């Protein structure tokens, strides 16, 4: 009690300060009156009033400097009183500061009577130019501000159409209003009552700690996958080294009889090639004087040792699972969908994951083949936001695996439901992201491409891409990648031709977007649709070449090369000779058997189990354990089937990143698989169906030396793994349509 009384005055002062801050005027009067009646002391809050009056003076001085066009005074106060953390990291503050610099740069042009003082005007323009080259350079990739970087170099901005808006009467008052609101918000935030500060610091600490731990877990998992890939590469290099060494040892053994190399020396050399654990036993137990002994032991070391067994996950009662997914509570449905997804995403790649997927497909987990009125798939349209999102995540996990895509593709109703959810979902961003991710992976299969094109998905993509700054990075990347995949097909190009002007405007705007991950897909889509004469005419009419050349000046070497190929396509005069009316072969299996499980599938989980509540694998094995039916399966042969000589023309579709050195021409790709394009490597782009391709047999012709890498070359081209003069990664290489029997 004594401690409470000792701090009572300070506590009451905190309450009074908060009531005053939140403008509870009547409550504050009653509170103060009651404290006075009970003789409770209130700590003085004169400091708060003093801060308020000082803040008002600063705001007034800033507004006065704004009105008078005094940029030195204004930016001196701005840098002194607006915290650097806000100026440097808050996007609203950065945009406002950019427009404030424009205001002061053109102030004399708008307010001078007659001709403005040239020296003063030059000084202001120079100040603005310095800002653009330093702090303002951060916004140079933003479409909204890009035209203003030319302002210091325009002789008379008042008559230039790009700056017409700046000289309208309404522009300065609107900017002033934004400034006043910003200052009021900033200075109010700086006077936050201590009680609110204490609540934020303590109330949010647990949440922030949880988020930090989750982020650390995600990073640890990513590092683990990176190290695993490095380990596999080192292991492969080790096996190659041992194989070469065995051949060398054979040669050395042949000289033993000539006494040029003694057996003892040969023994010591060979023993050093083995691991430390093997050296002693080999040195004392193996007779290296016998011919072939050393090379035999070296080759024996190539035989894989007994790998650590990865146990198969327990079988489940899928009938009970599907019943609860349909009839259970929303919370139970969400936990079951989460657990089933985790089984896929966290299982060990290889036999364990394949067994899980085979069990899901064999028991038709998603009811893709069911004709019942109520199915698991219908959870995609659940009233519960969590259930909808977790169903979308599970479908995206299925679509991340080649076998899962094949399962989902067997019924068009899955595609239709995803398209409906994509167009209707406006409440949950993560749900839409996962639906979009699944559709983008669907676009690796030709029949599903055709269905999406017929359903008008291209028009929906163009519509949302008109405002790319409103989209998350994931949505933007997958939308552009999906658009490109659909544009590679002749039917997709026909769709784009119907709204050619809009498509070209959207793609040209995306060229300057700050998210550089989308550049390969934008370039690929542009190159593909410009093969149509009507779209080329529209592009020339809107000055597309001038737009592209602007980006040549600013882009890196890889971007420049891609744009140069687009310009060549734009200026091409080739006709398509009726190819666009032909149907593509839908029976052809155009997909590489490649699995890519994204880390984002398990990010930002919405539900957490309460005390005593089961979740994840524990929920499945406790409540839904089935009869043990899981047995070891032989690995799919599909992975072997896609391997071929580096000099052999590719004959089936691949996913970028799955095929290490090539991005196929006129062939779909996934965003997560574009690493070579992003890192600036230049793999050769080869044709899925080279011009010499007939009847399923690849052409054996050598590439035309004089035409190598040129978009207009109609000669067959074989795959080369080394650097060549070819269209850059991510850009679609052109083929002479008249010699291609299977147009895309």
TrEMBL record:
**Domain ARMC9 CTLH-like per the UniProt entry, residue ranges:** 57-188
Which PROSITE patterns does this one have? LISH
Q: What Pfam families does the database record attribute to this sequence?
A: ARMC9_ARM, ARMC9_LisH, CTLH_Armc9
Q: Name one GO biological process term.
A: cilium assembly
Question: Which InterPro entries does this one have?
Answer: ARM-like, ARM-type_fold, ARMC9, ARMC9_ARM_dom, ARMC9_CTLH-like_dom, ARMC9_LisH, LisH
Q: Where is this region: Disordered?
A: 689-744
Cytoplasm: present as a keyword of the record? yes
Q: Which UniProt keywords apply?
A: Cell projection, Cilium biogenesis/degradation, Cytoplasm, Cytoskeleton
Instruction: Indicate yes or no for the key word Ligase.
Output: no
**Domain LisH residues, every copy:** 452-571
Which chain positions lie within coiled-coil regions?
Answer: none
Superkingdom as given in the UniProt entry: Eukaryota
User: What broad class describes the main subcellular location of this protein?
Assistant: cytoplasm
Location relative to the cell: Cytoplasm, Cytoskeleton, Cilium basal body; Cytoplasm, Cytoskeleton, Microtubule organizing center, Centrosome, Centriole
SMART domains the UniProt entry points to = LisH
Instruction: Identify one Gene Ontology CC term for this UniProt entry.
Output: ciliary basal body
Q: How does it assemble?
A: Interacts with TOGARAM1, CCDC66, CEP104, CSPP1 and CEP290. Interacts with NDUFAF2.
Name of the protein in its database record: LisH domain-containing protein ARMC9
- UniProt organism field: Vulpes vulpes (Red fox)
Q: What is the lineage of its organism?
A: Eukaryota, Metazoa, Chordata, Craniata, Vertebrata
């Amino acid at each position: 009690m004594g401690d409470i009384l000792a701090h009572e005055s300070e506590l009451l002062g905190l309450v009074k300060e908060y009531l005053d801050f939140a403008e509870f005027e009547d409550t504050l009067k009653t509170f103060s009156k009651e404290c006075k009646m009970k003789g409770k002391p209130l700590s003085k809050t004169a400091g708060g009033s003093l801060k308020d009056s000082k803040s008002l003076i600063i705001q007034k001085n800033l507004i006065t400097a704004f009105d008078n066009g005094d940029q030195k005074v204004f930016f001196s106060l701005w840098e002194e009183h607006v915290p650097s953390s806000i100026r440097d990291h808050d996007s609203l503050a950065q945009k406002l500061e950019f427009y404030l610099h424009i205001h002061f740069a053109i102030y004399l042009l708008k307010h001078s009577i007659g001709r403005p003082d040239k020296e003063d005007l030059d000084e202001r323009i120079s100040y603005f130019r310095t800002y653009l080259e330093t702090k303002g350079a951060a916004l140079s990739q933003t479409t909204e501000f890009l035209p203003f970087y030319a302002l210091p170099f325009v002789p008379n901005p008042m008559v230039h159409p790009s700056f017409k808006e700046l000289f309208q009467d309404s522009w300065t008052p609107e900017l002033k209003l934004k400034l006043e609101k910003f200052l009021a918000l900033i200075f109010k935030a700086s006077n936050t009552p201590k009680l609110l500060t204490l609540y934020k610091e303590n109330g949010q600490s647990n949440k922030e700690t949880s988020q930090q731990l989750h982020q650390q877990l995600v990073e640890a998992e990513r590092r683990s996958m990176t190290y695993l890939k490095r380990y596999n590469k080192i292991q492969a290099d080790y096996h190659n080294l041992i194989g070469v060494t065995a051949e060398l040892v054979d040669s050395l053994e042949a000289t033993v009889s000539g006494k040029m190399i003694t057996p003892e020396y040969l023994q010591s050399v060979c023993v050093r090639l083995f691991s430390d654990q093997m050296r002693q036993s080999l040195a004392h137990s193996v007779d290296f004087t016998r011919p072939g002994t050393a090379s035999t032991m070296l080759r024996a070391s190539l035989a894989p040792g007994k790998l650590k067994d990865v146990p198969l996950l327990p079988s489940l009662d899928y009938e009970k699972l599907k019943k609860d997914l349909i009839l259970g509570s929303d919370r139970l449905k969400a936990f079951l969908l989460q657990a089933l997804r985790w089984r896929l995403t966290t299982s060990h790649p290889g036999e364990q994951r394949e067994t899980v997927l085979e069990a899901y497909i064999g028991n038709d987990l998603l009811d893709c083949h069911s004709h019942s009125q109520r199915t698991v798939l219908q959870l995609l349209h659940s009233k519960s936001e969590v259930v909808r999102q977790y169903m979308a995540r599970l479908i995206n996990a299925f679509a991340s695996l080649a076998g899962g895509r094949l399962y989902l593709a067997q019924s068009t109703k899955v595609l239709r439901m995803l398209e409906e959810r994509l167009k209707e979902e406006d409440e949950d961003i993560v749900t839409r992201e996962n639906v979009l991710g699944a559709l983008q992976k669907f676009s690796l299969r030709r029949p599903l491409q055709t269905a999406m094109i017929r359903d008008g998905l291209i028009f929906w993509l163009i519509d949302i891409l008109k405002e790319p700054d409103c989209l998350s990075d994931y949505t933007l990347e997958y939308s552009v990648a999906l658009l490109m995949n659909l544009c590679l097909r002749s039917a997709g190009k026909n769709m784009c031709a119907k709204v050619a002007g809009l498509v070209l405007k959207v793609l040209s705007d995306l060229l300057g977007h700050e998210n550089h991950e989308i550049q390969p897909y934008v370039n690929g889509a542009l190159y593909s649709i410009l093969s149509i004469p009507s779209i080329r005419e529209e592009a020339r009419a809107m000055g597309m070449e001038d737009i592209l050349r602007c980006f040549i000046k600013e882009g890196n070497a890889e971007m420049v090369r891609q744009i140069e190929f687009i310009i060549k396509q734009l200026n091409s005069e080739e006709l398509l000779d009726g190819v666009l009316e032909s149907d593509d072969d839908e029976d052809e299996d155009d997909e590489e058997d490649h699995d890519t499980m994204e880390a984002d599938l398990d990010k930002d989980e919405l539900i957490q189990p309460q005390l005593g509540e089961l979740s994840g694998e524990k929920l499945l094995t406790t409540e839904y354990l089935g009869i043990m039916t899981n047995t070891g399966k032989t690995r799919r042969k599909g992975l072997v089937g896609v391997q071929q000589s580096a000099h052999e023309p590719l004959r089936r579709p691949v996913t970028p990143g799955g095929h290490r050195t090539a991005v196929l021409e006129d062939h779909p790709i996934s965003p997560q698989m574009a690493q070579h394009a992003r890192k600036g490597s230049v793999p050769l782009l080869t044709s899925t169906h080279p011009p010499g391709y007939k009847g399923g047999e690849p052409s054996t012709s050598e590439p035309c030396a004089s035409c190598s890498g040129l978009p207009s070359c109609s000669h067959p081209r074989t795959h080369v793994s080394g650097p060549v003069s070819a269209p850059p990664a991510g850009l679609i290489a052109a083929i002479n349509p008249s010699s291609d029997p299977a147009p895309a």
